[in-house]
Specification:
mainly beta; binds copper (II) ion
Length: 256
């Protein structure tokens, strides 16, 4: 009897877990630009399944901004349409005129996902530091939903932990669920089980989560909450999944 109950519970869990997690993505060619690296950063934007390297369609974003020293500028008119992971995305070459941390953030159009019977909006961001100045690394942008870094979101070694606070409407979200996935770009990573493509951690009572990256590369963190509003699809009101996504690069350990 016990075994049957366990089995049906497992079946329910498997059915409820999407095989592939979607991620809004902003990937810089380099998160730490030094004088020798040049004077700009090249960004690639997509809506994808990062581990499988499978693209979905990213429409023209509602907003694409850069924030530096407290000033936020809209760059959505500067994006160039591009094919990313065989689907529609964007690129941007952005000149870094001064030292400090530049935070790039994207609000995409709501994405209708029939498989989840819901819309998805991933508020996506990443942090880039220029010319050896990390000032502003802990900047909170005040997005609808946002992961605010407690760990400096660049200059991390592989195996380091990354910590952040999940916020929704400016308030920490207790026990928020955070999905974690590796951008398998050229890494050729494989998994022993599909369940390991996306890992999940929960925030604590203060909305703080912790994750240790097993390798260098880009890691995406997506905190998912259901919006307090709906959007119409085919004449019906549908739920909206709000994702707070941050992309963090971990560096290869170059010690012994
Ligand atoms: Cu998808």
């Amino acid at each position: 009897m016990k075994r049957i109950i366990l089995n049906s519970t497992l079946a329910g869990l498997i059915a409820a877990t999407p095989a592939f997690a979607h991620y809004g993505m902003i990937i810089p060619d380099d998160p730490m630009i030094s004088q020798e690296d040049g004077r700009s950063v090249a960004l690639t934007m997509s809506f994808s399944h990062p581990f499988e390297m499978h693209g979905m369609t990213l429409g023209e974003p509602v907003a694409f901004t850069v924030t530096h020293e407290g000033n936020t500028v809209d760059l959505s008119g500067d994006l160039t349409a591009a094919t990313v992971m065989d689907d529609e995305g964007f690129t941007l070459n952005y000149p870094l005129e001064r030292p400090g941390t530049y935070i790039f953030a994207m609000e995409p159009q709501p994405y209708w996902e029939p498989a989840e019977d819901a819309f998805i909006i991933h508020y996506t961001k990443t942090y880039v530091t220029a010319y050896g100045d990390d000032e502003g690394w802990d900047t909170e942008l005040g997005l609808k939903t946002e992961i605010v870094p407690l760990t400096k979101p660049f200059g991390l070694w592989e195996h380091n932990v990354f910590q952040g606070v999940v916020k929704l409407d400016g308030e920490p979200v207790p026990y928020a669920e955070v999905e974690v996935e590796f951008f398998n770009d050229g890494a050729g990573a494989t998994v022993p089980d599909e369940l390991m493509i996306t890992q999940t951690v929960k925030a604590d009572a203060d909305g703080v989560f912790t994750y240790a990256a097993p390798s260098d590369g880009w890691w995406g963190f997506a905190a998912l909450n259901t919006a307090d509003y709906t959007l119409p699809q085919d004449g019906t009101d549908k739920d909206v999944e709000l994702g707070a996504v941050i992309w963090v690069h971990f560096e290869e350990w170059t010690g012994k």
